[in-house]
């Protein structure tokens, strides 16, 4: 099993999700997405693996989202993914991907990650 977590160490849910993964004996690949920002193509890929439109991957409570003057149409996945690439703080977290199966979950609640564990 090979897991990748899009992680923000300042987020308690992200830390809890990472802990659940490690407690299961798996050492995931950690992407600190605020430092290594996913590209628009990667964001679209994540949305596809989650089976959700990009608009459902947004943290709408973030001030960057609420105060955005350049926010594209929420129904335009490609434009929205490009916008998220420029504003990664609005990306929902944590996102965990099983890189072998292509399945993914959002760790909210953190226990969602158990769907990817053996």
What is the assembly state of the chains in this entry? single chain
Average of the residue pLDDT scores: 97
Indicate the structural class: alpha+beta
Element-level helix/strand string: EHEHHHEE
Q: Helical residue percent?
A: 25-40%
Keywords:
Glutaredoxin, alpha+beta, 31% helix, 118 residues, single chain
What does this structure look like?
There is one protein chain. This protein is α+β, with helices and mostly antiparallel strands and 118 residues long. The chain has a single domain (3-116), classed as Glutaredoxin, CATH 3.40.30. Helix content is 31%, strand content 14%. It contains four helices and four strands. The longest helix is centred in the first third of the chain and has 12 residues, at 12-23. It is globular, with a radius of gyration of 14 Å. It starts with a strand and ends in a 12-residue tail after the last strand. The model has no long low-confidence stretch (mean pLDDT 97).
């Amino acid at each position: 099993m090979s897991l990748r977590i899009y992680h923000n160490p300042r987020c308690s849910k992200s830390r809890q999700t990472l802990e659940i993964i490690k407690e299961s004996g798996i050492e995931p690949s950690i992407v600190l997405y605020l430092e290594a920002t996913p590209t628009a193509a990667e964001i679209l890929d994540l949305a596809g693996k989650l089976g959700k439109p990009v608009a459902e991957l947004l943290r709408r409570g973030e001030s960057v989202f609420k105060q955005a003057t350049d926010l594209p149409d929420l129904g335009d996945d490609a434009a929205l993914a490009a916008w998220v690439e420029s504003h990664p703080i609005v990306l929902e977290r944590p996102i965990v991907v099983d890189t072998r199966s292509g399945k993914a979950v959002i760790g909210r609640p953190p226990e969602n990650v158990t769907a990817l564990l053996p």
